[in-house]
Amino acid sequence: MWIPTEHEKYGVVLASFRGTVQHGLPLEIGDTVQILEKCEGWYRGFILKNPNVKGIFPSSYIHLKNAHVKNKGQFETVIPVEDSVITEMTSTLRDWGAMWKQLYVKNEGDLFHRLWHVMNEILDLRRQVLVGHLTHDRMRDVKQHITARLDWGNEQLGLDLVPRREFSMVDPDEISVTELYRLMEHRHRKKETAAPASTHHLFVHVKSLMSANLGEELEVFFHIYDGRENRPLSERFFVRLNKGGLPKSPEKTERQCTLFVDLGSSDLRKDVYIVVHIIRIGRMGAGEKKNLCSVQYRRPFGCAVVSIADLLTADSKDDHLLKVYACNTESEWYQIHENIIKKANSRYNLSGSNTGLAVALQLLHGDIEQLRREYMVLFTRGVSITRKLGFSDVIMPGEMRNDLYITLEKGEFEKGGKSVARNVEITVYVLDIDGQILKSHVAAGSGEPGGDEYHSLVLYHNNSPRWAEQIKLPIPVDMFRGSHVRFEFRHCSTKDKGEKKLFGYSFVPLMQEDGRTLPDGTHELIIHKCEENTSLADCSRYLKLPFSKANLPSNNQTLKGTKESFWITSFLCSTKLTQNGDMLDLLKWRAHPERINDSLSKLKEIDGSEIVKFLQDTLDTLFGILDESSQRYGLKVFDSLVHIINLLQDSKFQHFKPVMDTYIESHFAGALSYRDLIKVLKWYVDRIVDAEHQDHIQQVLKASEYIFKYIIQSRRLFSLATGGQNEEEFRVCIHELFMSIRFFLSQENKGTSPVAQTQAMFLRTFPAVYGELLKIFTVREVAGFVRETLGSLPTAVHADCPLEAVKLQCIAKTVESQLYINPESRCILLPVVLRVLQVHMQEQRDLVMCARILTSMLSLIKKEENGTAQLGSPGLHCSLPEGQLVEPVVSEEVELIVESLLGVLLRTILEISNRPQSAGPAMRLQFQDVTGEFVACLLALLRQMSDRHYQQLLQAFSSKDDLRDFLLQIFTVFRILIRPEMFPKDWTVMRLVTNNVIITTVLYLSDALRKNFLNDKFDYKVWDSYFYLSVIFINQPCLQLESFSPSKRKKILEKYGDMRVMMGCEIFSMWQNLGEHKLNFIPAMIGPFLEVTLVPQPDLRNVMIPIFHDMMDWEQRRSGNFKQVEAKLIDKLDSLMSEGKGDETYRELFNSILLKKIERETWRESGISLIATVTRLMERLLDYRDCMKLGEVDGKKIGCTVSLLNFYKTELNKEEMYIRYIHKLYDLHLKAQNYTEASYTLLLYDELLEWSDRPLREFLNYPMQSEWQRKEYLHLTIVQNFDRGKCWENGIILCRELADQYESYYDYRNLSKMRMMEASLYDKIMDQQRLEPEFFRVGFYGKKFPFFLRNKEFVCRGHDYERLEAFQQRMLNEFPHAIAMQHVNQPDQTIYQADAQYLQIYAVTPIPESQDVLQRDGVPDNIKSFYKFNHIWRFRYDRPFHKGTKDKENEFKSLWVERTTLTLVQSLPGISRWFEVEKRELVEVSPLENAIEVIENKNLQLRTLITQCQSRQMQNINPLTMCLNGVIDAAVNGGLARYQEAFFVKDYIMNHPEDGEKIGRLRELMFEQAHILEYGLAVHEKFVPQDMRPLHKKLVDQFHLMKSSLGIQEFSAYVRASPVHFTNGSPRPCRNSVPNIISPDGGRGVVRRSYPAVNRYSSSSLSSQASNEVSNITGQSESSDEVFNMQPSPSTSSLSSNHSASPNVTSSAPSSARGSPQMAEKHKHSRENACLSPRERPVSAIFPNPLDPAQRAPPHQIGDTTLPRSDPNLSAPDKVRPTPSSWSLDSVKEGAPSFSDSVGKLLCPPVPPRPPYSAGSSAKNMRSQSPVPASRSPQKTTVPPFTPSPTECQSASLVSNSPVLSGSYSSGISSLSRCSVSEASGTELPAGDHPPHPLPPPTTLPNSVSSSSDEPIRRENKTPPPYSVYERNNPRRPVPLPHSLSIPPQTDPPALPPKPHQLRTGSMKLDGTSDPRVPRPRPLPRKVSQL
């Protein structure tokens, strides 16, 4: 049975448990669990991090821990009973764990590894704490270390700052908000700027000396040197190096490392140096040969210098290699370091190019104890301490030091009878009083232990040597008296075995007779002659002699006159010995009572360090003198005491204050002194007002704290001794003293007067006296003293009076003092404090101090409330009366503060927050600090307020206006508190406390709002302020719990709940109370409330969304609709969702809640419409936001932006949003380098502007400018992008438009630039290569796709060089979860509805619209390539399949093609790389039609290659060779034969009578192919290289076989009359640089400019011979009517088509014919085309399909098209504008009348034209044609001109020179008669040549574009294509534009022959109605609203 647990509440999982049992709870090792019940070895409970999931687990897996249970029962919470640091550590490490892994994922390796080390360190420290074996001090250190590490990690990971006190986390509810703020501020400041350390230390580690000429041992001396004062700052550090330059004792690190301690901040400057002197120990000369002499001397070697300032910037870990310099002359050695510092190069040089001293130097900061903790290793392994010369900046009591430093300066010696100067060495000894040498008391430096003696260095042959060597004599204090130092001088001979001969000595005693030590300074010592060591054995003999020349009696002239002298400098650093005689006189006052007066006077002149050495003795002396002769010396003793007290105020001696405190408590014995002290103090105070000089009095008052200490202690001693006698007398004295003080304080003075300064001095020290007074007086008495003293200050002071600030400081110290803690004193002092505060805050003066006072007051109130404040100290004489509770006292105090300060506090915060930030940074920082302090005070005060306080506050307002002002003020302040910049970003704790206070206060105040400001008293401003505050409260980042970690969220919810929901309910409640006043907030509050509902909190959304229904209802009542609501909702949704707010759940919730709400409304329909619109917008915005989160720009982002842009334009008509998204899309395109798409996108905005001078406001990145300027800028930007995207034709349009504008303004400079730019674009069209893109159809199926893609199909323009596989991979990368479908069939409903993503991708072929350009002869490929792949609306995909039974021997019989045509909503390219498919058509192409297309494609390919070969465009002839080989070989081996077998047999013709025309067409194409091949072989023969001649011969032979297989015997007529025309020449032959490009052998071209229209009949007639031969090939005898009376077929085989071969047959194969200019290389021969498997065979070309015969016009309707006219009745886009066509063999198609009646009459036999497909095929009604652009400049001749083709120009030479069969390049086989060439220049018809029918009037013009009856109207209500600006009639642009973007011209086009495909449209209409498929003229756009 399960039993609830009592004690087993909390545990940690010891081992992972899988939870495989029923109701089992899976556990991970380390999880913490809360246990609810137990049963037979099992527990039931939950994991703390996921409390919603409960289950059972074995008890053996759990380690139980003690825990404290709160709220026992269903909602109990468990808190482990353990050290708070451990709890914090555990939870923090858990949070870090998850984030640490994320660091690895984000590749932040550095932080990852550092955090890992810190986590391990914390875990180790945690173990130490848990074991519990640490000492108290060690535990403290460990906790400090842990918290430092936790704070570091939190800061690095961007987590919250944790408020701590004594290493433990602070509960914000347990302390005042002011105290919490102080803790946070302290920790923030500590984190922000560590306080600069005042003490610094230099660590030196000597590594080695590198030099080429070593070989002797070395001594290295380091010291710190002040270059400004030219003196050493420290003693020396001494290291011995061996002969190799390495430390002599490597095992003893303290001999290699030292710490130069106690450097002050002033020592870290550029002119302070580390100086290194290196001494060698060896022979006299460095280069001397080794001799028998074993005596060694200390000789100079070198010096190195480095500035300490260099170490501040250098990397502390780096070793420094110091350059070593030697002096040029030894006599300069003493100042070599100065010369190096001064850079006196002539006096020193490098001691060797490779000489350098390797040392490690590092500056450390902080006091020495801190260093011992931080650099424990340094101190444990050993480091010597090198002290400063003299005391450090701060002298610590108890510090023991007694060091005498002597510097051997210089000597003056006589030659001593020698011819050369001496080599002098000094030996130094220290001897005690008995004459014994003191052992180990002579130290050369700090690194080595002291020795018995010291040998100076020897300067070679120098009688005036200067050594400047410092030695240290650490002699104990007790040995100083009687000791002396002896200096022995020896001459070191370099001969006589190097003997050192004594020749004199000097000495100096260390202490004088009167107890003073040797004074600091330089001493000139006497050199006594001595040559025997024995004479020095008895020191008593020479000690009687004089030692210094300064001390010689005047009569001793012999010693005075001697030239020999020795100079030393001494410096004593001692805490026990003094060199000051005055100090000694004072201490020995009893011995010389007559000197007391002088000694007391001289005390002020004695150095402070001397006084603090003997502080206790000096104080005893002073009070001893006072006790014995107070009348005589009382004033002087008092002054001396003041001097000593004030001396301790100095920062250097401040640490001696505790020494004085200890003296007063323990050693002071002056029980009678209080009388004299009070008397003298009162005497001084009484003289303040009259005294001229206040300086001394101010010094007295400055010392008043300690004077009172002495007074009170003295009185207590007296009371103890006498049993409390004279108590009343003492009280009277004190009262009188305070009366005197009050009198002097009450004097009114100017702020700068001396008395005012004295008053200020007293106020600064007065609060320190309270504690002393409380030792004797009661709390009430002391509080009375304070109140009266502060009250005596003059009130009417000036605002700028400095006394006011001091008074405030005094009050601050009072509030922080022990006195104020007591409630009894508070009730006396609080009114005084509040009065002063109120005045200062109202006048905005001394706000920093006001904040400090207020903070202290409120902190104390909170402590009182918690019962933690101490009501007294051991000395307090009062407490609260019995039975009086703290609670009422606190409540009254809060009431007082609220009454006095709440209003002024609010005003202060408002004024500070709104203060301009123009002040300096220091001022700004100060205001910022004050703001935080005041905010904390306000929050603390509001948190202390109870219901009663709020009621009293609200009742206190006398009028509604006052209440209104208060509410507005407090709401405004709350809004300020919510600002993100109010607190640093990691102060979440502080923000949560703030929010908790705000919501509590708002709940109180909303009641007042309801009662006082509703109905007839309604006040919009107050309500608006309330709602605005509520909204920004809910939207604060710190309340968005969803963004926090689970543990943090849980803590916040447990402590405060979800404050957003509370506030949301309050908003709803208040809204419901508004009634009809709701209309005041519509639409103003729609945006804010919408922002609230977007917060991802379900409860909040459920509460707030219904408000929108309410708004709709009230708006409907007011205006009959809710347009305002809709507009505001839509406007705000975009900005809010783009900020990341809202989600799919919100969309569904919004939809469902509102739909449910409006079910019964009368306006239900319009409501549903609004909700649907908003919901659809949300869908798009959510998709957009999700896409934008992705890293790189991809199609998804662009597609989504396009979807949203179109939605704003078409459905919402939101112009500004539309333009914003245009620019977002533009930026995306630029980022993706889609320059063409970027141009089209920007065109959308350009279209909205006009060439006007209307001013436009600043918008996005556009400045304020006129509409004309912005449009100009846009034009230039678009042209630049079209240029970058190689879409130059479109750029030309805009250049012209701009040029037109410049010309109209006579801006010829810019006009010139524009024309040059236009010319450069033309050059680029002709000179630069353009890659031909692939197009892919992509289907997105499944519900997992974004809304704008879901279950839709698109056509996408691929990137450069991108083929199907690459595109497919790219799409799969963009949609990593998508599944690629492996078939091309349309998916079924299961795929559409699947919760997955399916991608179906295959390549499609574009169907160009501009067929006229593509079919025009002589247009270069560079130009045609643009029209093949631009402005494409329709795409085609072919899939081959077999219908019926498949003939194994000839599969062509049953090979059908399923052709899918896709029509897009917009043409490509456009504003996106992909557009949605709007319409899908499916037709089947019969085997015969398929065969026709295959041969047409191959013919086209052959023509292209032949032309390229002729015009020398091919680098080599191989592609042509391969193509010829492929075709001829296939034809010989069965390619064409298969077609003959399949379609030319009688069975097929009998069974398919309707295919007669198509069979004829197939015959014609075969015949044409033979002509082309023959001509190609002729060209090939001309260019084929020698090594390929055999192959050519083989091809010729095979070609003859092919002809015979086709039944072709002779082509003489064609050889004579029909050259093959190829189109790559210029349409104007006179410009053709290669006049002979068509004939294999060349010839002269005839240039003609114009021809009569009738010529085209004769020139395109077919010979009867050709007709007969065609009949022979087919094996049939058909009448000419049957064979030839048919419309010409489309020019699908012309070179102007896009590609020569068909695209992919299936989705898996990339298009084989695109992307390369050499198309021939991509194709195999005809047989491959014919015999490929269904998945491989290229079937169709890229051209539109030929149309049905049923759609052909009768002959009488066609003949008139020879001279088409512009119909004035047609609208501009509908007019036919045929382009100039090259005059070629295609003419038969361009003007073909019925040939049945006139074949025999023509001069030449006709060639059969290409028959169109049979009526039964539906594959032909799929072309939509955009209006054909007009020619550049209209001709003025009556006969419309046309451009002759190159064929006509060169036909004469072709006839005479070409033996090769030739055929029309565009329309199959034709012949050009001789007469047509010879009479070409005539304008009359030859006899018999006349049109068969008269020309119809112009009105009968057939529409050049028509559609089949079943073609639906396309693109009618769709978003027009982005370039549609060029399709509309633009009255502002008079210049005609090129046809690249189909701009209708203003003038009628000339009559030009239409191309054949325009005449073969079915159902030709004569009424001039336009084709519904033609894009309609776009209406003029709305004006941009000042954008």
- Shape, principal axes of CA atoms: extended
Structural class: alpha+beta
Tally of helical segments: 68
What proportion of the residues is helical, as a percent range?
A: 40-55%
User: What radius of gyration results from the CA coordinates?
Assistant: 54 Å
Number of E-state strands? 42
Mean pLDDT, nearest integer?
76
Measured distance between first and last alpha carbons: 77 Å
What share of residues are in beta strands? 5-15%
Largest sheet: 6 strands, antiparallel
Low-confidence stretches: 868-885, 918-926, 1610-1987
Question: Could you please describe the fold and organization of this structure?
Answer:
The structure is a single chain. Strand 9 (164-165) and strand 10 (168-169) form a beta hairpin. Mean pLDDT is 76; it is low at 868-885, 918-926 and 1610-1987. The longest helix is centred in the middle third of the chain and has 28 residues, at 886-913. Helix content is 43%, strand content 13%. It is built from 68 helices and 42 strands. Strands 1, 2, 3, 4, 5 and 6 form a six-stranded antiparallel sheet that branches. Strands 34-35-40-39-38-37 form a six-stranded antiparallel β-barrel. The chain is α+β, with helices and mostly antiparallel strands. Helix 45 (1235-1248) runs antiparallel to helix 46. The protein is extended, with a radius of gyration of 54 Å.
